[in-house]
Amino acid sequence: MGIYDPLFEPLQIKHLTIRNRFLSTSHTPAFCDNGVITERYVRYQAEKAKGGVGLTQFGGATAVAPECSSYYGQINGSTDGVVEGYRRMAAAIHGHGAACTVQLTHGGRRERYDIAGWLPQFSASPFREIVHGAFPAVMEDHDIARVRRCFADSARRVREGDVDGVEISCQGGTLVEQFWSPWMNHRTDGYGGSRANRLRLGLEILESVRSAVGDDFVVGIRMPGDQKVAGGLSQDDCVEIAQAYASSGLIDFVSVVGGQASTVKGEAQIWPSMWVPSAGYLALARAIKHAVQIPIFHATRMADAATAAHAVSEGYLDMAGMTRAFIADPHHVNKLTQDKEHEIRPCVGAGYCVDRVITGHDACCIHNVATGREAHIPQHITPGEQAGKQVVVVGGGPAGLEAARVCARRGHHVVLFEAASRLGGQVVLASRATWRREIIGFTVWLGEELERLGVEIHLNRLADASAVLEQNPDVVVIASGGVPNTGEFPGAEHVTTSWDVLAGVATPTEQVLMYDNSGGHVGLSCADFMASAGSSVELITSDPSFGRELGGTNLGAYMNEVYRHDVVLKTDEAVTAVRRTGNRLTATVSNIYSSHERELTVDQIVGEVGTLPNDELYFELKPRSRNLGELDLDAMTRFEPQRIDTHPQGEFFLYRIGDAWASRNIHASVLDAMRVCKDL
């Protein structure tokens, strides 16, 4: 393995021997059921242990008190009933040779009062937190004493649950960090004012935890290396805090992050998408490592083993957190040891996994649909009993590429037709925008997999019925994607599509009006692209806010960029007509509530209203198919094979997936492909 050798050195922390330096840091995938650890959650963590990870820190943001709302679908660690779940999880992880810890968290003001117990949120000071909208109660002495007991009792349960250690959250805008930061803490008593006072609560919590678990149990903290907000904790402040806590003798490791999560921009910084450079916060980890004598953990966009090995060997950190890389491929480590590095699914930094959770959904990788569905979809597809079928896939976007990959792995002969000169579909366009270039990585990987698997690929080939039928197929998968939609109103023919702008077919002009009625990446991305090129852009949407399909890791990045480029943003408006005015265009724009109209004359109007199915070939082939194009939706939701065979005189089975079926996102398209093809 050579350059990766530093990652395979064990690390000793007290009694705990961690077999290597690969770390999955604390996070919640929202797989709990009302705070209870589920079998799905156990399988998710066990898969990473099976895949070779040294330490997996499960139970991110585990709730310690009744006022903690489990807003993100995390574990409720505040009752003794959690111990049995810890034991099941620990046994599954230990069974594959990995170690595990649990992160304990009091969210403070970073909670909702109206989800679980309808109790107030608590914090150092009564300042509203933007993301959750909470106005917290200011903690009194009895609240502080109670929270100390809650942490101690929760830590005791972790130890009783056969877990190897506990991590106390002092980051992400949670309670301890709220006391640390002068941006959040304006108290004048013994818990506010001076740094020593602001650090007191965290140290008292750790003293209580130590009393509950003993000196031999592994205890650490997760903290910022820089809050990256005006009036907050600077890098120097954070180094001094780390020194104070390490010198207390109460902790055995420090896990370092960058930023805070109390604003949407903060979410984009602390859990960054490709907006932040790869391994962009390594310097924060190194500064703390140089200041303390205990192991340093760190994870932020460290997506490949080469970067991780460099970070360990050059003394930036001791445990290399590749958390999202292990969501993209839980078997990342084993593939390195088995000389299968080329098979590692890459994490491209899309941020979809985190955005799902922080918007109240379960975590999903944008392109590995098996992660989190281990009970239904294997990470490794193997040949089936009826291998050798002739499969034709039409379309080389995410859905078509995954369909071809899965069918080839099932042992079938696969022919793929793609009308463009390269594979990737709409992902190619997305990668041409400003900061999202890396998203092309997963379709590049899929293309390389198809070549390795022997898929017959025809580029620059707009497949028609005769081309498909010439292959004498047993199965035809229509993944031909969608065509751009600009809406329906008088003069819509004058509107330029976002695709043409991103593809370079249409050059952004001096003054542009863009309307976005899809709420996803494309509208904001295209507006940012045009403004970056020097256009004066006004972006409108009929939605009540921009990016309503996005979470904070992407939305915060987009909003930062469009405001930085002086894009004018207006919600609750729709374009109702366009007409030519000389060599310019005039749009009639109507408020969707008041119906008040205004006219705006610009050089160019760009529209984004999702896509319409590119389904002409599908309907041409449908009468000749054995299932008449029908998909068994119940079977899809149960991850069962497609068995509809209502037209036995047909020549092949026909399946339509992805945007050729309906305009959705990448994950939905890839999941279509997997569910249809995994049992062929």
Number of domains: 3
Radius of gyration: 27 Å
Per DSSP E runs of 2 or more residues, the count of β-strands stands at 27
| Uncertain runs | none
Biggest sheet features: 8 strands, parallel, barrel
The largest sheet has its strands arranged as 3-4-5-8-9-10-11-12
Beta content comes to 15-25%
Mean pLDDT: 97
Number of helical segments with 4 or more residues: 22
**CATH topology heading of the largest domain:** TIM Barrel
The helicity comes to 25-40%
Structural class: alpha/beta
Termini gap? 36 Å
Shape summary: globular
Name of the CATH architecture of the largest domain: Alpha-Beta Barrel
Highest CATH level, the class of the largest domain: Alpha Beta
CATH superfamily of the largest domain: Aldolase class I
Your description of this structure?
- The chain has 680 residues and is of the alpha/beta class.
- The protein has three domains: 2-358, Aldolase class I (TIM Barrel); 390-480 and 635-644 and 659-677, NAD(P)-binding Rossmann-like Domain (Rossmann fold, 3-Layer(aba) Sandwich), CATH 3.40.50; 486-609, 3-Layer(bba) Sandwich (FAD/NAD(P)-binding domain), CATH 3.50.50.
- The chain has 22 helices and 27 strands.
- The strands form seven sheets. It has an eight-stranded parallel β-barrel with strand order 3-4-5-8-9-10-11-12, surrounded by seven helices.
- Helix 7 packs across helix 19, helix 13 runs parallel beside helix 22 and helix 18 runs parallel beside helix 19 (552-564).
- The longest helix has 20 residues, at 141-160.
